[in-house]
Amino acid sequence: MKKISANILDGKFEHLVDEDNLQITHLQIKKGEEVPRHKSDKNVVVVIYKGKVDFKGENGSEIIRPGDIITMDPNEMHALEAIEDSDLMVIKAKI
Question: In whole angstroms, what is the distance from residue 28 CA to residue 53 CA?
Fold first, then answer.
C-alpha cells in the first residue's frame, strides 16, 4: 500500500502518479478559467470533489459537481470551464 496526498495548489495541476500505463493528476481550476480542448491516448476518469465545472465532451456538455464522475474512451476530445473554484482528480490508464 502506498499513500499519496494532493497538495494545496493555486489554480494549477500536479501529477501524483506518472507511470507508463497510469497517470493520476490533481487539477485545480479557478472560477472562469478554462482547460482548452484536448484528448488523451488513455482511458480517462475525472472525479470532481470540490466546486462546479462545465465539462464539454464530444456529445455535449455536463455540469459536474462533487460526487459526479466522467469517463472517456481514448482520444475523446474534451474541454473544461470552472463555474466555481474547483478541484478534480484525473485518472488516465491504458486498459
Answer: 11
